[in-house]
């Protein structure tokens, strides 16, 4: 007889394990199924985020930033450092250690909350009395039944047509995190989050990096003024970003990769590189889920169709995170996971898509929440804008990093904050204040009237809010 659970979560990434924990907190008997394996073949929950995404990329970014500071910025602090070298193998080993700590932490949290963990691939076998039968294919095969099922199977890297990932020369985000030596020449296709972050890592370590982007604008989803400021900084660093290109034939050879492309001027270019990272987006992961067995509806992208509450077309089946509509962000998945667990319990779980923050962890960092200036213009919304540069911030000067600015966009009539956009030092942390403010429908004046610690980077947030009313105090 198969084991019976109130809730079974398929997928142990940010959306899945958080949903499982919240459901357990609400008194349900919960199981979580996840198939990620570590190097030893053991369980490695945490999904793409923990294993080959957010966490390992931040570890490499931190290591490469230390290296960059030692080589280029220590001297201005009076610190002499000569012969600084990077042990890439040790850097990768540290990254792996950080990943394992997160894997183990998730396993501990599941156990602490009395969630039964199954290591293997979960798939639908069919409907059962009062719910669904789920097969778990791991070291052994077993079947479990559930009254409610939450699908949180995430996404996979999108490959270029005709150019499959071999994770040796042609790399997805997975292979990009396991490069064993600094490539002399690195090419990237796609100037999104992954392209910019991985390009930054290897540029700091000495690679000649070229990023090819098909769109004519840089970071089209980012506020245009912020994107231009970021592009200026990346150009100065030596990160070569070509916009408006058309990628043609790609030849993966023994000694590297050749990328043939046409640039924005229409010129044919041949780019030889040791490695090629392809970061052109991600696709929902429903492989092996056996959706046909129960008639689960998918859209033309392969995403699971859900309503505003993350309900699928099947009673008692829900889906969250990258496998459904909306931004592919770990924190969005977590919020949906919590909301679904609460809805199953009869509560009113809520996710506000308008206040989901975005961050790119380059140097300078880029962060934003809400609508951009170009979106407000397109929507015909009357607004006021205020900006404040880190150049005029005392803490930024002390840090030695005055790149960038904070920008507020507020309703011209009510002064309600409609968007906050930042590029500069540690803005991944500063953006939280803006998220809180927007969640409580604050005005720019509210932030302008709040006391901020001095000296702190957060003062730039206050000053940008003051700038909406054209009354900055330090610029």
TrEMBL record:
InterPro entries on file: Class-I_Pyr_Nuc-Dis_Oxidored, FAD/NAD-bd_sf, FAD/NAD-binding_dom, FAD/NAD-linked_Rdtase_dimer_sf, Lipoamide_DH, Pyr_nuc-diS_OxRdtase, Pyr_nucl-diS_OxRdtase_dimer
SUPFAM superfamilies in the cross-refs: FAD/NAD(P)-binding domain, FAD/NAD-linked reductases, dimerisation (C-terminal) domain
Main location: cytoplasm
Any one GO biological process: 2-oxoglutarate metabolic process
Alphabetically ordered keywords of this record: Cytoplasm, FAD, Flavoprotein, NAD, Nucleotide-binding, Oxidoreductase, Redox-active center
Domain FAD/NAD(P)-binding span(s) in chain numbering: 5-337
Cofactor: FAD
Reaction equation(s) it catalyzes: N(6)-[(R)-dihydrolipoyl]-L-lysyl-[protein] + NAD(+) = N(6)-[(R)-lipoyl]-L-lysyl-[protein] + NADH + H(+)
Compartments it resides in: Cytoplasm
GO-annotated cellular components: cytoplasm
Keyword Nucleotide-binding: yes
E.C. no: 1.8.1.4
Disulphide linkage map: 49-54
Record's keyword annotation contains Flavoprotein: yes
PANTHER family: DIHYDROLIPOYL DEHYDROGENASE, DISULFIDE OXIDOREDUCTASE
Additional observations: The active site is a redox-active disulfide bond.
Protein name: Dihydrolipoyl dehydrogenase
Organism in which the protein naturally occurs: Limnohabitans parvus II-B4
């Amino acid at each position: 007889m198969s084991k019976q659970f109130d809730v079974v979560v398929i997928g142990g990434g940010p959306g899945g394990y958080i949903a499982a924990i919240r459901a357990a907190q609400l008194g349900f008997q919960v199981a979580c199924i996840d198939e990620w394996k570590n190097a030893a073949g053991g369980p490695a929950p945490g999904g793409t985020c923990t294993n080959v995404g957010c966490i390992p990329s931040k570890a490499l970014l931190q290591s490469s930033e230390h290296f960059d500071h030692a080589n280029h910025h220590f001297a201005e602090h009076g610190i002499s450092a000569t012969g600084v070298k990077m042990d890439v193998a040790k850097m990768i080993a540290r990254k792996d250690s950080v990943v394992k700590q997160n894997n183990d932490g998730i396993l501990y949290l599941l156990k602490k909350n009395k969630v039964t963990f199954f290591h293997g691939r979960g798939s639908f076998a069919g409907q059962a009395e009062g719910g669904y039968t789920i097969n778990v294919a791991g070291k052994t095969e077993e079947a479990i039944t559930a009254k409610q099922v939450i699908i949180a199977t995430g996404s996979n890297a999108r490959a270029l047509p005709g150019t499959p990932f071999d994770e040796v020369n042609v790399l997805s985000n997975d292979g990009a995190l396991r490069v064993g030596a600094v490539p002399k020449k690195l090419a990237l296709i796609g100037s999104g989050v992954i392209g910019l972050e991985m390009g930054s890592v290897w540029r700091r370590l000495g690679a000649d990096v070229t990023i090819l982007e098909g769109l004519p604008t840089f970071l089209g989803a980012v506020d245009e003024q912020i994107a231009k400021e970021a592009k200026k900084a990346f150009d100065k660093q030596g990160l070569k970003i070509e916009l408006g290109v058309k990628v043609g034939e790609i030849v993966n050879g023994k000694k590297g990769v050749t990328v043939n492309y046409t640039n924005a001027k229409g010129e044919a270019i041949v780019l030889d590189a040791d490695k090629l990272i392809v970061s052109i987006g991600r696709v929902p992961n429903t492989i092996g889920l056996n959706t046909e067995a129960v008639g689960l509806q998918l859209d033309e992208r392969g995403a699971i169709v859900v309503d505003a509450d993350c309900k699928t077309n099947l009673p008692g089946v829900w889906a969250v995170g990258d496998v459904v509509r909306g931004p592919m962000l770990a924190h969005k998945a977590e919020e949906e996971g919590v909301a679904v667990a609460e809805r199953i319990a009869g509560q009113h779980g809520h996710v506000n898509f308008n206040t989901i923050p975005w961050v790119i962890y380059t140097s300078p960092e880029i962060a934003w929440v809400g609508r951009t200036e170009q979106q407000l213009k397109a929507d015909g919304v009357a607004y006021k804008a205020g900006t404040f540069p880190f150049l005029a911030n005392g803490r930024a000067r002390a840090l030695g990093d005055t790149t960038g600015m904070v920008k507020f966009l507020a309703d011209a009539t009510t002064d309600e904050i409609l968007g906050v956009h930042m590029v500069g030092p540690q803005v991944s942390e500063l953006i939280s204040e803006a998220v809180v403010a927007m969640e409580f429908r604050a005005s720019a004046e509210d932030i302008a009237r709040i006391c901020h610690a001095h000296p702190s980077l957060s003062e730039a947030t206050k000053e940008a809010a003051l700038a909406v009313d054209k009354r900055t105090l330090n610029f």
